[in-house]
């Protein structure tokens, strides 16, 4: 229990210390107009309040990641707490803040456009394909996961196909309609339910004195389970997630002032990490060792979510908590498809003011996602995890390049970016879904590839600084009378 509570305190302290440093180092410009005003279109660029943007951002980035990932990460023992705390403060929150703020400085641009500007035109095409792959996988995973939870909650009285169809119908509406019609209106309510359910489960674990394992050298990694690189891909959304880089630009287009960035981007990542801590602790405490492994094999993390919720909160409270968990992936799946629509529209320069223009882009994505739902969830999750963390590497390198050109402390992004580059490369070289090489060969290969790519980064960074690439969009001719 001490390790668990101390970890949550560290996350909160990290927001008020390292988070404040990151904001000061980046350099907020409160007087600079944001895309919510300079590009206002009533669809994607709509000014919204800080509290509303914060809750929307939390729901956008959360999904099932900070729940399913930590539950599966609980198999590694209390070492998962270390990764959630260190990863969230020094990697995930920095990643989210930089992608959000750099997007604000560049007309609400998404990651492919930012990669093209700061890492080269070739990377724009690579990242565009990579981001779309990730978003379609996320959208599919976040259809399958809540559908399974709903099916279990209703004891199978509604067919799985009908549940999937209803979720897809909602996704279509949320993807096409202006952001303030569904997302801006209902997400604050959903966000409150999410926070209440997480706090309820965490609070009951403390009140009931649930024996949460403490971090010791003896149980650092139970049964000698190797933690590198699998732990850092299994627990993603609660510590560091490239999916967030696709979501932050959605809110960068609705943020009123740059000064709100720490609460919206850095702060909501810390909030997500606290949720991840609660579910990792629950997985370790209530389903220790073999039992947890058996439950994962029997029904996946969805079974554990239901068991934990009902055990901690009773039948009624547990059901409400499960509903909160169901809402979580749905409110990330819809913005995954929305983000994909916006990325494609930006890439092909296709205006989105008319609903039919949005529809022509959205329909093919949903068709692909429907086909992917026929694939086993565990296989989808493995590909999602690798694509997710690889996207985080790209986003951190974009942030490092921006800071290098600006003459600021680029190490805050480059160090976690290089670490995750090593982890993701090792995984894809070693994993069965990748090249299937022995671990020692994979580690050597990943080291060589990482050193080579970091060297390329510094070479490109020096040239970019010499070329004086503009760090932000010029808004000197913006007409302030357009403010809405």
UniProtKB/TrEMBL annotation:
It is a multi-pass membrane protein. It is found in: Cell membrane. InterPro entries: CstA, CstA_N. Pfam families: CstA (PF02554). Residues 3-160, 163-280, 296-426 form the CstA N-terminal domain. It comes from the Bacteria. Keywords: Cell membrane, Membrane, Transmembrane, Transmembrane helix. The chain crosses the membrane at residues 6-23, 58-76, 82-104, 125-151, 157-179, 186-207, 227-243, 264-288, 308-331, 359-380, 386-405, 412-435, 441-462. Belongs to the peptide transporter carbon starvation (CstA) (TC 2.A.114) family. This is Carbon starvation protein CstA. The lineage of its organism: Bacteria, Bacillati, Bacillota, Bacilli, Bacillales.
